[in-house]
Amino acid sequence: MTIADIMQTAPVIPVIVVDDLEHAKPLARALVAGGLPILEVTLRTPVALDAIRAMSEVEGAIVGAGTVTNERDLASAVDAGSQFIVSPGLTKPLGKAAIRDDIPFLPGIANAGDIMRGLDLGLTHFKFFPAMAAGGLPALKALAAPFGQCRFCPTGGVSLDNAAEWLAFDPVLCVGGSWVAPRGAVDEAKVEQLAREACALRG
Ligand code: 3PG
Questions:
Q1: Distance between CA atoms of residues 105 and 132, nearest Å
Q2: How far apart are CA 45 and CA 76, in angstroms?
Q3: Name one GO molecular function term (predicted).
């Protein structure tokens, strides 16, 4: 799968923070059941790598690592079975390592210089982060104009209320957000319902 395939699998990529390993599988099951198979597990908690391993056992789940900020994180994420990686920003060492390891990579960008650094590396698919704080849809529209070959996944402040607007902009293939995967004990029926609503954003 390429990063483009991953971005086109579902309209929303859940941004997941797992505090308790017990939550991992039920959360993955509920999200997949609701129609969101692409799961971004952030490397922000001690159990994140084990959560990636556990979630990868759920049928239909395509699990990746988020908050990957350097080559060491990348190696651990790949070792845990991540099928893609997401980073909040783009550095040359991380970009080169992801390309070398041939792992689908979605790096964060917030300005034209970031995009140009990505293009230099051969990357064209980016996370626009932090989407709302960096200026929202008007900012992405302005930024996307000179870079017609690029596609985006806005993340950061995206919600059920504003996701449809982002998705209506052609260069946006999907959005990322934590609203579909609340932290804490997992209410599978509720998460499945949140996933269903998110999945229906693109009819
Ligand atoms: C993050 O890295 O936490 C993501 O940007 C998620 O942002 P959100 O919580 O605003 O969806």
A1: 22
A2: 13
A3: (R,S)-4-hydroxy-2-oxoglutarate aldolase activity
Question: From the CB of residue 199, how many other CB atoms can be counted at a distance below 10 Å?
Answer: 18
For the chain, the domains span 3-194
What are 172-185's pLDDT values in tens digits? 999 999 999 999 99
Widest Cα–Cα separation across the chain: 46
Residue 91 to residue 108: CA distance in whole angstroms: 10
55-84: pLDDT as tens digits: 999 999 999 999 999 999 999 999 999 999
User: What are the φ and ψ backbone dihedral angles of 81, each rounded to 5 degrees?
Assistant: 100, 15
Instruction: Specify whether 197 is catalytic.
Output: no
- Looking from the CA of residue 42, the nearest atom of ligand 1 is 2
Annotated catalytic residue within 57, 71, 96, 127: 127
pTM: 0.97
**pLDDT tens digit string along 137-176?**
999 999 999 999 999 999 999 999 999 999 999 999 999 9
- Class in CATH terms, 3-194: alpha beta
Kindly report the average pLDDT of the chain as a whole number.
97
Residue 127 a catalytic site member: yes
